[in-house]
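WARN retry 2 of 3 for item q-0093 after timeout on previous attempt; input resubmitted unchanged.
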Amino acid sequence: MTVETILFFIFAGGAIFTALLMIRHPNPVISAISLIGNFFCLAALYLLLRAQLLAALQIVIYTGAIMVLVIFVIMLLNLGDEQRLTERYDLRKVAGIAVAAGFLMQVAYIVVLAPSSERTAGLSAEASRVGTVEAMGDAMFGRFLLPFEAVSLLLLAAIVGAVVLAKRNS
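OK item q-0093 returned
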């Protein structure tokens, strides 16, 4: 086993553990902190995939900005411990377990039948460029320029609409 493989299993296990902790813990603040830990594990997985820009964006945007807002909202709402239902077999629990088992079987299938080095040898030159700032910039301002500009116009319209609604209510 290589060091990359060992690190992958460590960070993937950490991501799974923090995701389960986030879902199962009754305290919303600890759930939010677990989500932050999950974001850090995902950023480490991005680094293992040589996607440095995505890892940095994961840390700066999600962990730095979004989660600060989520924690502020949790503190402003003063959420207490959630009252858990005592139903033994809920249909949502059974469906969730079935979906999780399906995902686990897919991951196990991928790990057991991992592609050999002969099949992935031709991808190494192109794969080393994926996730870099240059590749993301080429994709964003090349092939996906029209959708990028459409999203920016949509966000501008949403900001103008929010300002108009805020002025009307005050």
